[in-house]
Specification:
Layout (H helix, E strand, L loop, with lengths): L28 E3 L5 E3 H10 L18 E2 L1 H13 L17 H10 L4 H17 L1 H9 L2 H17 L5 H21 L3 H9 L4 H12 L2 H15 L4 H5 L3 H13 L3 H14 L3 H9 L2 H11 L6 H14 L3 H9 L3 H7 L6 H17 L3 H9 L2 H10 L5 H13 L1 H4 L16
């Protein structure tokens, strides 16, 4: 066999050149408090995006999350790449150093000079945020979150009052959109999210609600995603102070189906704020129940399991109030589509679907509703559920309660297959 030419040889880098997380050659090696070196992008994602508190290799709990550039190792890696360039190894460029706080403060000061300076500032901030996680944390500490919130609020107010200078009006809209994008990409901390929630008595929430009413799909998507992050850290007072318009616009996001990410954020947001009974009523009055049922009808359970699961979680919450149950019963496909999702999504999905049916049977089980449940196969599905191994203990317990509740009507019904009558609980 002929020997391989130099250019055909595969060159394996030394193991210590590889990031322990990505197993790729490190472009920007940094060392963390445990003494182990990683590629900056991988370890910052581990620590700040994924919010781990340990070293990935040693599993030591970290006392701080500072990363220190390993310039010596980077130069060694670059030298090795240069030596092996003839064998197809690409040289790794020297990474840009992370931005410092003073640089960010100067950019924010420049933004105050004119609307055009502000636009340039936003472009620079977006570029800095995209570079690495260190930049994002530096930007937050320098006051970028407060600045961006101000841009969104001021720009939205300018457009609301209809400025005569339409070119400036368009610039305000673009500035608000850009600020929303940066706020989303910053993945800001809990303390900054709480600042946005309480800013000037909730003015930022009101501003985002206005953006949901009047702006592009892109702006509405970023607004609902930001609102979702904010209400993950909200207190009960902030949750209970939401307006009817807020619910109308969030539900409209679901109705318009802007994107899967926007729909997931809207559902998560509604689930979070529906911990309050008052908000459940507001959501129902805003038309949530028929929209959710229509979504269940349209979505393929196998391709959209998580979305279907969240819809059932929210419907279960909304059926905890009389208005919610009435809306579900008013929809021609309400009971049927909920029953159909049992055993088709997940254990949690089945549990929530059975929970919805339990609320209907327990609190809204009129004679006509009870007859409808057996006619469209709900009783058959519940009996079948009891026989399925691994269907979930909670779902089975609820199913038994429902079947016992209306046993006199259902047990000997001609609509119930004879093969399932033995499964009917006594």
């Amino acid at each position: 066999m002929a020997e391989l030419d130099d250019q055909d040889q595969v060159v394996d880098p030394p193991p210590y050149f590889l990031c322990p997380i990505s197993l790729q050659i490190m472009k920007d090696p940094v060392t963390i408090a445990s003494g182990i070196t990683y590629d900056r992008e991988s370890i910052e994602k581990w620590l700040f995006s994924d919010k781990h508190k340990t070293c990935p290799v040693s599993h030591i709990v970290l006392s701080d999350f500072d990363v220190t550039p390993n310039h010596t190792l980077r130069r060694v890696i670059q030298a090795w790449c240069t030596v092996n360039a003839s064998k197809g190894v690409e040289r790794i460029p020297t990474p840009k150093p992370p931005v410092d706080r003073e640089q960010v403060v100067r950019i924010l000061a420049d933004a105050k000079l004119s609307p055009f300076s502000q636009k340039n500032c936003l472009c620079r901030l977006r570029s800095i945020a995209a570079a690495n996680e260190s930049n994002k944390r530096c930007m937050e500490s320098a006051g970028v979150v407060e600045f961006l919130a101000g841009v969104v609020c001021n720009s939205t107010t300018n457009m609301e009052y209809g400025l005569e200078d339409y070119a400036f009006d368009d610039m305000s809209a673009n500035s608000a959109d850009e600020a929303l994008i940066i706020l989303h990409k910053l993945q800001i901390s809990e303390s900054s999210l709480k600042f946005l929630l309480s800013n000037n008595g909730g003015i930022f929430i009101s501003t985002l609600t206005k953006i949901l009413q009047n702006r592009s799909y892109s702006s509405r998507s970023y607004s609902v995603m930001l609102l979702n992050s904010m209400f993950e850290v909200a207190d009960q007072i902030q949750i209970q102070n939401l307006t009817a318009d807020f619910f109308i616009e969030i539900i409209q996001i679901l109705k318009d189906q802007i994107s899967k990410q926007a729909s997931k954020s809207a559902l998560k947001l509604l689930i979070a704020v529906s911990s309050s009974f008052r908000n459940r009523v507001k959501a129902v009055q805003a038309g949530a129940v028929p929209v959710l049922i229509d979504l269940l009808l349209d979505l393929d359970s196998s391709e959209n399991k998580r979305l279907c699961e969240m819809i059932l979680v929210l419907l279960d919450q909304l059926c905890g109030c009389a208005d919610g149950r009435a809306e579900l019963l008013n929809h021609a496909a309400g009971i049927a589509v909920v029953s159909k999702k049992i055993l088709r999504i997940s254990t949690v999905g089945s549990e929530k679907a059975v929970g919805i049916l339990w609320s209907i049977a327990r609190f809204s089980g009129s004679q006509s509703v009870v007859q409808e449940m057996v006619r469209i196969g709900v009783v058959t599905k519940l009996c079948f559920l009891l026989q399925v191994v691994g269907a979930g203990v909670k779902a089975k317990e609820k199913a038994k309660e429902i079947l016992k509740l209306h046993g006199r009507t259902w047990r000997n019904s001609s609509c119930l297959p004879s093969t399932l009558r033995s499964a009917y609980p006594q």
